[in-house]
Automatic annotation (TrEMBL):
InterPro entries: Phage_T7_Gp4_N (IPR013237). It comes from the Bacteria. Residues 27-49 are annotated as: Disordered. SMART domains: Prim_Zn_Ribbon (SM00778). It holds the Pfam family Zn_Ribbon_Prim. This is DNA primase/helicase Gp4 N-terminal Bacteriophage T7-like domain-containing protein. GO terms for molecular function: helicase activity; zinc ion binding. It comes from Roseiconus nitratireducens. Residues 94-138 form the DNA primase/helicase Gp4 N-terminal Bacteriophage T7-like domain.
Amino acid sequence: MRSFRTRHCAMPLTNRIGTVSPAKSLRPVRGDQSMWRQRGSGRRVDSRDGFSSSYSARVISMPYIHADRVRSAAAGSWRSLLTGVGIPALILDGRNHPCPKCGGRDRFAAFADFDRRGAVHCRRCFTRGCSPPPGDGIQTMRWWLGLSFGDAIKQLADSLGICDEGGPGNSIDGTPVAPRSTSTLPYRRPAADAVDIDRMTQFAKEAHRRLTGLVLRRLAESLGVTCDALRSLRVGLTSDGRCSTWPMRDASWRVIGVRLATLPWGQADAAKWSYPRSHSGLFLARGMRIRRRLFVTEGASDTASAIGMGLSAVGRPNCASSSEMLFQFIDQQRPQRVTVVADHDPPGLEGASRLVAALRRRSIDADFLVPPLYLMDLRAWCNSGADRDAVYLAPTRTIRLGPVQTSFQFLNDETSFV
């Protein structure tokens, strides 16, 4: 970025609400430090009121997220966050394993405090001296997906349901405010492009054609779901016949990623990961009708259970992912009520509470329910004999937000404005 120099400091060519890409540099007009002259043209720009019509500039508004806020919100949820982007869960047990990125035999391991920090390392491709170096879950995300620091912060914030903070140096309407910490970084949201969407769609379509007959019935019986639910989710089978495929879609039902899971009868330990270059999305049934009440489930198999019970359901890959995409989907479908079905564990309860709070801040009638004490998730609840009426009539919980200030009073005046 080009810069111009005053007598005492150097300032980047930015305004209060974004980044400016000028054709030429500026210099201050003598006698008025709020006016800047474009070199070579004689045109003047007022830094207090904006830019003159004769000065060509491009203003980009970018949201901001504090990195420490992301680290604090992700503590305890790194396992679900990182498995959600494709790191196999089986290699995050603290023991030595082959590196999922560069291979080898036993060069990869997760640190002892992995759930709190999300730190892993590989002695070949992710160690001291590498770029990025290992350190925490943000660095792990950068290493695994090849993201910049800002893009990793944005993707994690989306998964955790963290909203932007308005950006340093300006409020919602662009008026100057006190500057923020330097660790508040700009980011650009990574999105699936047309090539990725076509690639994922083709992969999911070919896999769906393979899952027929005996294998389809066996998978449905193993998971305790219906064959129709698997068909509506377009579940498929990989070419080697070892894994099931679960398409992930955006709010417009486009396939932006595919989740892979080992078949229940294939290995003793189940594993889940994402197809290369997948983007985290939603599990949506084709031809789904949104009734008055929409249920949000955690995981692909729970979504299949909900669909088999006759519920209007949308699934997330885990309890802390695809929040922004879910908001877009709800804004489009406009259900009267949203109920989040939480897994019966601390991360599931925390993720459901955070999602409900975010929905209620958007003026959406939202609550969450938890399966009975002896059951882990909705699929186990369904397999124990629960039906659609049992889920509809189950007691729910909600999140009470703090009071909203509606009046303002000046310290030197008794007048109150409402």
